[in-house]
Amino acid sequence: MTPAAPSAVVFAYHNVGVRCLAALLHYRVRVGLVVTHKDNPNENIWFGSVAALAARHGIPVITPDDPNTDEVLAQVKAVAPDFLFSFYYRNMLKKPLLDTPKRGAYNMHGSLLPKYRGRVPVNWAIIQGEGETGATLHAMNEKPDNGAIVSQQAVPILINDTAQEVFDKVTVAAEMALHKVLPALIVGRAPHLGQDLSQGAYFGGRKPEDGRIDWNWPALRIHNFVRALTRPYPGAFADVGERRIILWRTLLGEGPAPALHGLGTRLGLVDEGHESTVALICADGSWLRITELDAAGQPASAAGFAAAFGGPVVQLA
Q1: 3-state helix, strand, coil in the chain (%, to 5)
Q2: Is 82's pLDDT higher than 80?
Q3: The pLDDT value given to residue 245
Q4: Angstrom distance (rounded) from CA 100 to CA 84
Q5: What structural domains does the chain harbor?
Q6: Do residues 262 and 169 lie in contact, with contact meaning Cβ atoms separated by under 8 Å?
Q7: Which of 79, 144, 189, 233 could form a disulfide with 184 if both were Cys (CB 3.0 to 4.6 A apart)?
Q8: Span 275-294, mean pLDDT?
């Protein structure tokens, strides 16, 4: 006799939420309720809609500002779920919700736990210069991202990958991590491996003002910072006089740094014979090729650099 498909309540948002909800539906998990977020009109919504996917499958959707209320708890209990899943849902879920499912509550986190517990793990992994990251399905408790690991999937971070490119890989990793363990989880045979929390750390959220570049950093650190914060994020920036510049794309310079007038960190136009390029000479003597930047809200290409900055070289530090 085939066992009945398990029931679930899903708290989800963003692309990871879309793909993981799709995986549950693939395995015929009976999703009785989806809890998601209202899109913020002040946020760049570059990702897919969990609410739209749920609507296509006739699943009830709610979007509470606070999930930890008696009203939401009653709606979750009415489903009598076997499982509760959280897939990139942005609010912490408290003990009454986590205690509701009969067979456990599970969260998908965008790192290889125990590394990068907490907020925006993809951005932090790039800032820190990691060569890989991934996704982890883990049991939930009241402390964020520290429950037993059920499934993991790693992906590489290449030297010029941006945060969105890595997030796209992590989205696939999350789908794979869930896909490969769901059959075992459904029949009660999934592994639950405790985390050694000493092997990782907790990282907090980031705000646009946290994107300020320190011109005393070496080239590699600036490069990692830029690619971690480039579009669709607000960008890595600095103020040069009264002008704000944003670095959107960089490449690590090869060979000796090009000759630019001045000492210390400086930004300038370099003639490479067949074309000109914008170079950033960094505090450690290494350099970056700047392939995309804005100055005072306007693109400042190599062709327009001197006009944008009032000369071929800008002293930064």
Answers
A1: 30, 25, 45
A2: yes
A3: 95
A4: 8
A5: 7-203 (3.40.50.170), 211-315 (3.10.25.10)
A6: no
A7: 189
A8: 93
Q: How many CB atoms lie within 10 A of CB 221?
A: 18
Can you say whether the dihedral through the CA atoms of 221, 223, 228, 231 is positive or negative? positive
Q: The sheet that has 30-35: what strands, in order across it? A: 61-62, 30-35, 7-12, 83-87, 105-109, 132-139, 149-156
311-to-213, 269, 305, 307 alpha-carbon distances in Å: 22, 9, 8, 7
* Dihedral angle computed from the Cα positions of residues 46, 51, 56 and 62, in that order, rounded to the nearest 10 degrees: -170
Q: Partners of 272 in the beta sheet?
A: none
Instruction: Let me know: does 133 contact 119? Beta carbons within 8 Å.
Output: no
Tell me phi and psi for residue 150, to 5 degrees: -105, -35
- d(CA 230, CA 228) in angstroms, rounded, equals 6
Give, in degrees to the nearest 5, the angle at Cα 250 between 246 and 256: 125
139-153: b or e for each residue (b if 16 or more CB lie within 10 Å)? bbeeeebbbbbbbbb
Q: What would the pLDDT profile of 99-135 be if each residue is shown by its tens digit?
A: 999 999 999 999 999 999 999 999 999 999 999 999 9
**Against a cut of 0.85, is the pTM above it?**
yes
State the average pLDDT for the chain: 95
* Nearest alpha carbon to residue 39 among 25, 29, 50: 50
- The mean pLDDT of 72-91, rounded to a whole number, is 98
Type of residue at 130: E
